[in-house]
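Appendix B, Record 12. Input sequence as logged:
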Amino acid sequence: MAVKDQSAQTTPGTRPGRWRPGPRLIRGFALAAVFAQGGIAVTGATVRVTGSGLGCATWPECQPGSLIPESRSGLSGVHQAIEFSNRTLTGVVLIAALGTFALLLMARPQQPGILKIAAAGPIGVLFQAVWGGIVVHTELSWWTVAPHMLVSLVLLFFAIWLHQRLVDEARSAPAVGTGLARPLVLLTWATTGVLLLLCVAGTLTTAAGPHAGDSETPRLGWSVRAIAQVHADLMFLYLGLVVALAVALIAVKAPERLRRRLWVLVAVTLAQGLIGLVQYATGVPEALVVSHVLGAALLTAAAARVTYTATRG
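Logged structural output:
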């Protein structure tokens, strides 16, 4: 939805009737960026578990001399299609993230800080596109694939934060804080920091495991069992911190919205931990790997909502 900026006629330096995007349109692009950022993490995992990482052998072309998949002797059409679909989704993410930033720029928000948050989206997507080329040219070396996943989760965190800011502003009462004691706010951020370490350990576990994206790609030469144990320990630490935070918020009678979002985070954490345990016990089947990555995206989204609410209201 778009509206005419009536104040443009009296604002110096503007033209009468200058078009400004409406808040619903901006929020729509921001929400699309949330889903696209989460989606590309999941499709990236699909590329990895199906061994389609080099389905498109070059970058930015799919095959030498062709931007799109093509039938060639010795090349799997399925692998090409899966990898090309993941690359195509990058364009969707860029449109959503860049569109959100551009629309906000045209709307001239009263709080300039929101533009800095919005800028993280398109900058991050462009970085991911370039880094994707490095991933291909290094033939899926684990040290290039792992950051690819982590950056997607960080961008998802920013996208959630931005969308929540826009939703709050649409209620005509931008939040400025929950009134929580500073130690509780710091505990919330510390919990988010442990989540980041948990995700790093998860990507390293994958790097040492069997799903490399291509059967000939060298793996991280660490013990899968040892890294998986560290990953599990961090999961238990994270769950403990989340439960402790929930108890503390109940004790201080924190706002209901924050408590409700925290219980959602507890539920997602428990589900993600269960998937991880079953995945390890059953030999890391492909379907559960993708489910675990989806869980990581949902966990990141839930954590972002809690951190935002604890910080700003």
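The two ends are 27 Å apart (CA to CA).
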